[in-house]
Amino acid sequence: MRYKLLALGVAVLFASSSASAWNEDSASSATPAVKSAIRTLKADAHVKNVKIFWKKGMVAPRMISGTLSAPSTLPARKIALSFLKRHADLFSISDTGMLREKIVLPTRAGSVVRFHQQIDGIPVKGAVIAVRVDSNGSVRQVVNGLVDETA
User: Fold this and answer.
1) pTM, entire model
2) How far apart are CA 118 and CA 46, in angstroms?
3) Taking Cα atoms as reference points, which of 34, 132, 50 lies closest to residue 92?
4) In the chain, what are the domains?
5) Distances from the Cα of 120 to the Cαs of 21, 60, 94, 144, 147, in angstroms?
């Protein structure tokens, strides 16, 4: 029960009212690489009903939801890490090696895999990216709380 509430809390915490849906204006601080990565994600045949939310001043999206990947039979942690590697530009992740798996939280609808960010081997307090994988093995949501490494 505690894990289910924690998983839900991750999504609610990051989907705050200060975020806005995707459009060129709300993504004004996004780099050309991030904008290109969004177009690439949306062009994937398995991707449907994509909603992208931004927090003002963020280089990468705060949250992305929808059906974001094809179903898979792999464990949730592998699905999540594979998705982040494939779409690293979308989240301005220069090296997925900077992510350390924190926890896999089972939910009624699948799992939430949380990764903590490290820069130069030092953990960044509060810098987390959470990937929700449904029971069919599809990525359904990514909540991005990573720190921009260039900041």
Assistant:
1) 0.81
2) 31
3) 34
4) 2-144 (3.30.310)
5) 33, 21, 12, 20, 13
Contacts 24+ apart (CB under 8 A), 70-75: 70/46, 70/138, 71/136, 71/137, 71/138, 72/137, 72/138, 73/137, 74/137
Helices (H), 15-141: 32-43, 76-86
Segment holding 122, helix H or strand E: strand 122-134
What single-letter amino acid sits at 60? A
User: How far is 79 from 76, CA to CA, in rounded Å?
Assistant: 5
Q: How far is CA 54 from the centre of its chain?
A: 12
Residue 7, token pair as written in the block: 């998983």
Enclosing H/E stretch for 7? helix 2-14
Q: Would you give per-residue pLDDT tens digits along the chain (151 residues)?
A: 444 444 444 444 444 334 445 444 456 678 888 888 988 888 888 889 999 998 877 888 999 999 999 999 999 999 999 999 999 999 989 888 899 988 999 999 999 999 999 988 889 999 999 999 999 999 999 999 998 765 5
